[in-house]
From TrEMBL:
Key word DNA-binding present: no
Pfam families referenced in this protein's UniProt entry, alphabetically: BMC (PF00936)
Residues of the BMC circularly permuted domain: 11-126
The protein's name in its UniProt record: Microcompartment protein PduB
Lineage, opening ranks: Bacteria, Bacillati, Bacillota, Clostridia, Lachnospirales
Gene3D superfamilies: 3.30.70.1710
Compartment annotation: Bacterial microcompartment
Alphabetized UniProt keyword annotations: Bacterial microcompartment
Length: 238
C-alpha cells in the first residue's frame, strides 16, 4: 500500500513554483508534450507554459496575472473560469501562459502568486454568500482577454452571490460614476452556472474606482444583512 505521508508537503518538483491564498497554485512546464499541446487548443507557438489555478476567486488572480505579464516576456494563452469556489458562489480560475524562456515564465508565475496575496484582499466570503472586487488603473492583456476591457483603460470588477446581490451592486455602481460596462455575466450568461452576477467596467481611473467602492459598500451591506459577517482571506487594498 502506498503511504502518502512519505510525500512532503514542501514540494520539490521542478514544475512547482508556489502557492498563494484562495487555494492558488503556480506551476511551470519547461517543454510540454507536443501531442498534449495540440489537444490544449492554445496554439503551438510556445512549449514553455506557466499554469495558474485556484479554487476560489477569479478577478484578483487575473489582475495579478495581468500585472505579471506586463512585467515579463510572456503571453496569456487561455483563461477559464471553472465552477468551483469550494462550494461558495463564485468561480475558481485556470490560466495558461506561454513564453520562450522558462525563466521568464517562472518569474511571471512567481510574481502573480505574490500579487494574488494582495489582490485577494477584496474577496469576502460568508455562510450566506460571496463578494469579489478588483481594480486596475491600466488594463493589460489578461484583463482584456477575460473581460473585454480596452487595453490601457482603467478596469473595475465586482461579483456578488447570491446573484440578486450582484445585480443591485452593479446597478448602484454604474449609477454612481461615469463608467462603461465591458462585461455582464449571470448564472446563465458567461459563467460556469455559478450563483452570481458580475460586471466589469472601464473608464477614467477615478470614476472606475469610485464605482467599485460604491458596489463594495452596497454588496457588504446586503450580504451582512443576511445574518453573518464575511471572512476576508487577504487584506483589503481598495
Amino acid at each position: 500500500m502506498h503511504d502518502i505521508h512519505n510525500i512532503s508537503t514542501s514540494c520539490t518538483r521542478t514544475e512547482f513554483v508556489g502557492t498563494a491564498v484562495l487555494d492558488t497554485i503556480g506551476l511551470v512546464i519547461s517543454g510540454v508534450d507536443d501531442s498534449l499541446l495540440q489537444e490544449m487548443n492554445v496554439g503551438t507557438k510556445y512549449h514553455c507554459l506557466g499554469l495558474f489555478s485556484s479554487r476560489t476567486g477569479a478577478a484578483g488572480q487575473i489582475t495579478a496575472i495581468d500585472d505579471a505579464v506586463k512585467a515579463t516576456n510572456t503571453e496569456v494563452l487561455s483563461i477559464e473560469l471553472p465552477r468551483d469556489t469550494k462550494g461558495w458562489g463564485g468561480h475558481g480560475n485556470y490560466i495558461v501562459l506561454g513564453g520562450n524562456d522558462v525563466s521568464d515564465v517562472r518569474h511571471a508565475i512567481s510574481l502573480a502568486l505574490e500579487l494574488t496575496n494582495k489582490y485577494a484582499g477584496e474577496v469576502y466570503i460568508s455562510e450566506s454568500g460571496h463578494l469579489e472586487f478588483a481594480f486596475s488603473a491600466s488594463a493589460g492583456p489578461a484583463i482584456h482577454k477575460a473581460f473585454g476591457t480596452p487595453l490601457g483603460e482603467a478596469f473595475g470588477f465586482m461579483a456578488g452571490s447570491p446573484a440578486a446581490i450582484g445585480l443591485v451592486m452593479a446597478d448602484n455602481a454604474v449609477k454612481s460614476a461615469a463608467v462603461s460596462i465591458t462585461k455582464y455575466m449571470t448564472p446563465n450568461i458567461g459563467t460556469s452556472h455559478s450563483n452570481e452576477v458580475i460586471i466589469a467596467i472601464s473608464g477614467d481611473a477615478s470614476a472606475v474606482k469610485a464605482a467599485v467602492l460604491e458596489g463594495r459598500q452596497t454588496g457588504l451591506e446586503l450580504l451582512i444583512g443576511m445574518g453573518t459577517y464575511p471572512e476576508i482571506p487577504g487584506t483589503p487594498y481598495l
